Amino acid sequence: NGLMAGKRGLIMGVANNRSIAWGIAKALTDQGAELALTYQGEAFRKRVEPLAAELGAYIAGDCDVTVEESIDAVFENLEKKWGKIDFLVHAIAFSDKEELDGRYVDTTRGNFQRTMDISIYSFTAVAKRAEKLMTDGGSLLTLTYYGAEKVMPHYNVMGVAKAGLEASVRYLAVDLGGKGIRVNAVSAGPIKTLAASGIGDFRYILKWNEYNAPLKKTVSIDEVGNSALYLLSDLSKGVTGEIHHVDAGYHVVG
Ligand code: 0WD
Asked: Which domain holds residue 176?
């Protein structure tokens, strides 16, 4: 029973129990979804295995999104296991910590390229593979941040990447819409996760949001999870190409 009963999908980007992807995974399982998770590298396997067990989720493998064969292997596993999928969550981004501080103008070519590859292209790469398995239509979701729209302190090259990711949501929505595949993003307010701890002065950003957001608080991974649930379920059948803010309203004042 539940909103997601009978639906199966892949969640990429669970690093630990503070990950936004984990909040989404819990909300989906609560509503009856069956999940597959990937992890990145052996170090994360130990963290993700018990989490997968908690939700009865299938582990679709070790996936480094910079390696094409590694993505292919995950989708081959899914095809063998389920034949088709109904949804996919992409909660992956990366940039060199040293460049999430100081000035954007000092970004190096190498880190710029790596940031765009992991934080933008990987979503397109997985969308292309998901299309083949979404034979009854489906819903793709990625995670973005307000730094795509406005300059946020220290977000730098990641802000440029998120702007590209948001544009790719719109292009993918058009490409895949004819097959009943919807493509959306949640623009989450700041949350203290492993990835966020790499951003300079992150505690200050959290406080700033808490004081200034209309709801006078920051958001939790469970709140992001419940909004993601809407975008991944049939409740949002008429929604695609959307950047949905789950940020306690910060974007209307910031
Ligand atoms: O405030 C925040 N935390 C916000 C995060 C606000 C708005 C958006 N987001 C976004 C992030 O940019 C990201 O796209 O949400 C997404 C999920 O991030 P998260 O939950 O904040 O962070 P975390 O729990 O660290 O998960 C991100 C994971 C990586 O963890 P680490 O800590 O190793 O960076 O992305 C994965 C990895 O598991 N990842 C990769 N997966 C496959 N291949 C790769 C890669 N090459 N690189 C990073």
From this structure: 8-189+220-245
Active-site position among 39, 58, 121, 145: 145
What is the number of domains present in the chain? 1
Give the pLDDT confidence of 12-68 residue by residue, as tens digits: 999 999 999 999 999 999 999 999 999 999 999 999 999 999 999 999 999 999 999
pLDDT of 18: 97
221 Cβ contact partners less than 8 Å away, ≥ 6 residues apart: 18, 19, 20, 22, 23, 24, 191, 193
Q: Which of 39, 146, 155, 250 is catalytic?
A: 155
137 exposed, middle or buried (CB, 10 Å; 0-12, 13-18, 19+)?
middle
| Catalytic residue list contains 39 | no
Residue 2 forms part of a structural domain: no
Buried b / exposed e over 46-69, threshold 16 CB at 10 Å, is ebbeebbeebebbbbbbbebeeee
Ligand 1 within 6 A of CB of 71: no
Ligand 1 binding pocket includes 118 (Cβ within 6 Å): yes
Mind listing the pLDDT tens digit for each residue in 80-100? 999 999 999 999 999 999 999
Q: Rg (Cα) of the chain, in Å, rounded? A: 17
Residue nearest to atom 3 of ligand 1 (CA): 191
Q: Which amino acid is at 3?
A: L
65: Cβ below 6 Å to ligand 1?
A: yes
Ligand 1: distance of its center to the CA of 91 in Å? 6
The residue whose C-alpha atom lies closest to atom 47 belonging to ligand 1 is 94
- Assess whether 155 carries a catalytic annotation: yes
| Residue 205 covered by a domain | no
